[in-house]
Amino acid sequence: MMEYKDNDFGNLIKSIRNKNKINAETLVRGICSVKVLNNIESGKTFPGYLLRNFLIDRLGLAREWFENMLTVGEYEEWQCRRMIISQLRKKEYMSADALVEEYRKKYIAGDIAAIDGIYAQKLDENEADEKLRLQFYYTVKGMCGKDGEEPYYELAAALTSKAYHGGIIDESILSRYKLSIGELNLYLEAVWHSKATENKEKVINALIACIDTHYYDIKTKVKIFPKLAVYYCRLNENTTDLNVLRRMQKICDEAISLLRAQKRAYYIVELFNIYLCIADKLCETLKDDGHVGFQKQVKFDKRRIRQWLDAILNEYRIREVPLTMPNDFYIYQEGTAYCINDVIRARRELLRLNRKDLCAGICAEKTIEKTEQHKSNLQYANMKLIYNRLNLPCTYQHASLIVPDIITLEREEEINQLAGRNELSDALAAMEELKKDVPGYSYNMQELGWIEQVILNNRWKLTPQDAADRVKTLIELTVPLKYIDNFINNRNHGLRKNEHVSKRIYFTRTELACIVSLAGYYGKSGLMEKAMDYMGLLYEYLTNNGESDDVYCMESVFTRFMTHYTSMLGDIGNFEVSDRLADEAAKRMLELYRPEKIWWHKYNNLWNDETKEKDKEKYNSVLRECAALCEIYDGESVAKIFTNKIVSSC
After folding, report:
1. Sign of the alpha-carbon torsion through 594, 600, 604, 606
2. What is the C-alpha to C-alpha distance for residues 182 and 609, in angstroms, rounded to an integer?
3. Domains of the chain: total
4. Of 15, 131, 286, 387, which cross-links 394 as Cys (Cβ 3.0–4.6 Å)?
């Protein structure tokens, strides 16, 4: 296996910054010194996870790209922040407020009023972490409805940037920063809660211009632009000015298109309703004979939007999800994270390694024992060597591939998009070129091999056995299948049998995707018992006590898994469990405003219940709902699959 380099994260940060022409001073202004950034990019220092995430946010990348490996202390803090965000998602504001006060007492030293001014002057890494903790505290206080007591959003924004004060934004100062969407959202909320109503539109327009001017990847932009569109339209809801109405329509169109492309639902109900109101006003304003074509198009769009709105609202009501956005928890959602100490123990036991063999030539056996018991943390150099021996990515923070530049990650994303558009020959050709340039780590080869296998299967329809053999080879690059089988057969035995599966074994995201595919191919090969063994294990692993937040950054794996698993359960006649799990999965994804494949779960239950034979009217109604949901997020070609299934009532 190829050895990992020492500075993949630093090189990646520098690559992203250079590609998007962000100078060092602009990137770190207000948070740390250029010297700190230079040390990170050169590999002389490795920052804590708070600063790592902040740099990623400011570079305009979504946290979903990355998985984090944290020390014991970092992981405990991550869990605290995650719990607070979870309470905000559930609209449990009193609980969130109590938790963030506990967070303040534990992680923010000294008097807040005093340290606020001090941190504005300090720019080393330690003070950066303290500023980010205080910013999180102020942000949560604002989201809990406490902004009337103190201008918490403004206080939070001022910790890392100085372009806004008292409802006024200084665009010349704003241009000196490359702000994260979290910081932009603080400005938006600060002005929205301020009394300076005359400045609100100016601030919102400045923030929209900021999004258009600076680089934000589409996964990031989709989190903030729909909200900006909604707030801009709310300010102008009583307008009859044709130019303003046309701009409102254009902004709404762009926001809805972003949400559809990324399969997200942030503010989508609000946007649909706003669009319908704008359409009515435009038709009324432009009702003369010279605009017949325009009116015809607007009326067509209204019918389509109304159909989409009804379909989304119906799903929200069925799943008991708030019909409109309750708050902006999703902007501050923590990325996927694992405790290094727990991963080492879980992976070691999965691979059936004793501590002595694991640490040979690296560190003392006692060091591993203390690490697994949370009594100490490994030095970074030793952590890399231990992870390498466990066939894991040897870095604290990594994306889908371990590469030193963002262009390679974008090429992988382009291949996924080509495959999604069924341009399979081009996808395979691009894959062959990409493999030449990607470091040959086992993790990388497994990731690219899995994508390639999916493309090959879609193009040539491999036999289930051939596809299964390919995937088994990929899995065994990092984990011998015999060890997974051993765990399945013995997971109800031993001293740790009562611990949650996710604490006893550890899989990377790519390993999970490969195991899901293997189980699917086993099912198609007639090896259903084997398939269900793997699926049962993954269900326990992925559904950590029913928390939606646990699938936030593994949505693609979770969605693929649940569509396979519920279908298999139906195939073996376990309709009740299949229906229940399909409903659970749909609710989880809607709670996170990520409605991909919601139509699958509806159709799964429709098929299980044999509704076609029992109630044709209900059968056709659900098919139309599936088609409408497909039109929003998967396009008309997928929607036609359902409309073509509609049966005649004759």
Report:
1. positive
2. 44
3. 2
4. 387
| The 3-state secondary structure of 65-96, one letter per residue | HCEEEECHHHHHHHHHHHHHHHHHHCCCHHHH
pLDDT at residue number 1:
38
Mean pLDDT throughout 445-459?
A: 90
pLDDT digits (tens, 9 = 90+) for 175-187: 899 999 999 999 9
Give the β-pairing of 67-70 and 397-398. Answer: antiparallel
Dist. CA 82–CA 103, nearest whole Å: 11
Residue ending a domain, choose from 421, 438, 455: 438
For the chain, first and last CA: distance in Å?
A: 65
DSSP 8-state symbol, 628: H
DSSP labels for 325-369? Answer: ----GGGGPPPEEEEHHHHHHHHHHHTT--HHHHHTTTS-HHHHH
Q: Which domain holds residue 230?
A: 216-334
The residues, any chain, with a CB within 8 Å of residue 120's CB and separated by 6 or more, are: 158, 159
Indicate the pLDDT class of residue 119, thresholds 50, 70 and 90. very low
The pair of three-digit structure tokens given for residue 276, joined into one six-digit string: 């319908």
Residue entry with tokens 């940060």: 13
Judge if 309 and 221 occupy the same domain.
Answer: yes
pLDDT value of position 118 = 46
Interatomic CA distance for residues 11 and 42, integer angstroms? 7
Let me know if residue 488 belongs to a domain.
no
Which of 389, 341, 358, 352 shows the shortest CA–CA distance to 484? 352
Phi, psi of 350 (to 5 degrees): -60, -45
Phi and psi, residue 339, nearest 5°: -85, 120
Q: Which two tokens stand for residue 566?
A: 């519920």
Is 381 within the bounds of a domain?
Answer: no
Residue 519 has pLDDT above 60, yes or no: yes
| Confidence check: pLDDT of 228 > 90 | yes
Token representation of residue 146:
């406490």
Share of the chain above pLDDT 70, in %: 94
- In sequence order, which residues have a C-beta less than 8 Å from that of residue 283 and are 6 or more positions away? 295, 298, 299
Asked whether residue 111 carries a pLDDT value surpassing 80, the answer given is no
Q: Does residue 492 lie in a domain region?
A: no
Closest CA to 264 of 227, 318, 317, 211: 227
Q: What is the pLDDT of residue 380?
A: 84
Structure tokens at 141: 């206080």
What is the rounded average pLDDT of the residues 573-601?
88
Question: Is 468 a member of any domain?
Answer: no
More confident residue, 80 or 589: 80
The answer to whether 255 touches 229, Cβ cutoff 8 Å, is yes
pLDDT given for residue 306 in this prediction: 94
Decide if pLDDT at 493 tops 90: no
Contact present, 645 and 624 (Cβ < 8 Å)? no
Which of 273, 303, 334 marks a domain boundary?
334
Q: Are strands 336-339 and 67-70 parallel, antiparallel or unpaired?
A: parallel
Query: Which pLDDT tens digit goes with each residue over 382-391?
Result: 998 999 999 9
Q: What's phi and psi for 242, nearest 5 deg?
A: -60, -40
For 206, residues 6+ apart whose C-beta sits below 8 A from its C-beta are 169, 171, 174
pLDDT over 70 (residue 546): no
Residue matched to tokens 């390694």: 353
Q: At what angle do helices 218-235 and 181-193 cross, to 10 degrees?
A: 10
Neighbours of 118 (CB within 10 A): 12
Considering the domain architecture, whether residues 414 and 314 belong to the same structural domain is answered as no
pLDDT digits (tens, 9 = 90+) for 274-308: 999 999 998 888 777 667 788 888 888 999 999 99
